[in-house]
Amino acid sequence: MISLIARTIRSTAGNATIEIALVMPIVLMMALGGIDFAMGYRHKIEMQQTAQLGAEYVMGTMENVPTAVQVRQAIADATGMPMGNITVDKWIECDGARQAIGAPLCVTPGAVQTDFMTITVRDTYTPMLNIDGIADFASTQTHVGSVTLRTK
Questions:
Q1: 48 by DSSP, 3-state: which?
Q2: Are 120 and 27 in contact (CB under 8 A)?
Q3: I need a labelling partner for 21 at 20 to 30 A (CA). Which of 28, 58, 64, 128 fits?
Q4: 9 is a domain residue
Q5: What's the rounded Cα separation, in Å, for the pair 60 and 124?
Q6: For residue 107, what is the DSSP state?
Q7: Is residue 2 one of the residues assigned to a domain?
Q8: Residue 55's domain spans which residues?
Q9: Does residue 6 lie within any of the structural domains?
């Protein structure tokens, strides 16, 4: 009887199964974390590309610079993104100084007027590992893409 107990204690059968059972959750969490990080980074790049798409639209219609609503609509139509996630800011600079909001022209005679437009796109990204109690470190993030261009 004692020899049976001694053989059972020294037996190594099944050790690999136990080791795999202990290590596998850690390996899976690391793999899913890497995939989740890559998906979040891809989403951030998509926001920047969406803003650049708006800049391309503006540059393609430079003879008649589109209004902010037209730019937002063009981006929304091309990407399916809600117009509420897209902002367009137009402003002018007179001799390099930004003018007050809504100023259509430079007040100073002979000043060099330059028109600018900033297109900003925002969207939230929720990681797939956002699991309460397990991966509390993975939280929803807001990704922003922005492009500023000179229109005149």
A1: helix
A2: no
A3: 128
A4: no
A5: 29
A6: S
A7: no
A8: 14-150
A9: no
Strand-pair partners of 147: 119
Task: Please state the domain count of the chain.
Answer: 1
Tokens read off for 121: 């796109």
CB-CB contact of 81 with 121 (8 Å) = yes
DSSP 87-116: EEEEEEEETTEEPPTT--S-SSTTPPEEEE
Which one-letter amino acid corresponds to residue 49? Q
Instruction: Record the tokens describing residue 106, joined without a space.
Output: 């430079």
| pLDDT recorded at residue 136 | 60
| DSSP 8-state symbol, 132 | T
Tens digit of each residue's pLDDT (9 = 90 or more) over 62-105: 778 888 888 899 999 988 889 899 999 888 888 777 777 666 77
* 30-68 per-position pLDDT tens digit: 888 888 888 889 999 999 999 999 988 888 887 788 888
CA–CA distance, 71 with 78 (Å, rounded to integer): 11
The DSSP bridge partners found for residue 145 are 121
Residue type present at position 50: T
| 144: number of Cβ within 10 Å | 13
In-domain check, residue 110:
yes
